[in-house]
Design a protein that fits this description.
The chain is mainly alpha-helical. It contains six helices and two strands. About 10% of the residues are buried. Its main location: cytoplasm.
Length: about 140
Amino acid sequence: MSGLNIGQAAARSGLPPKTIRYYEEIGLLPAPARSEAGYRRYGERDLATLAFIQRARSLGFSVEDCRGLLALWQDRGRASAEVKSLALARIEDIEAKIAELRAMRDTLADLAERCHGDERPDCPILSDLARAGEGKGGRD
């Protein structure tokens, strides 16, 4: 039987074997053909599917999003509006994450600015972290 074993498929796809097995387990990747000895054998279509999933995941799509995108990719009668809708929703998620990261950066920069960074024991950074741990939040 021809095809690649899981190690070869992993090398070609850039995904660890464990990830490939996981994608099979959750039904994201169809179960591959098996050799007479029971080893998984991957074909070019499997590799294309793995590349598709890897690229979608690298763009931040969830596993469930990938499931939907795969279904759309395989459906030649799809409407591109569905694909665009998924991409626009992902862009909104990314924009929200960017705003969250900027707020984190600004807060940390403010705390670092207020910290003397010398031999004194008082530190606004640690004080803020301790207050947050007490459920109070806030700043010095």
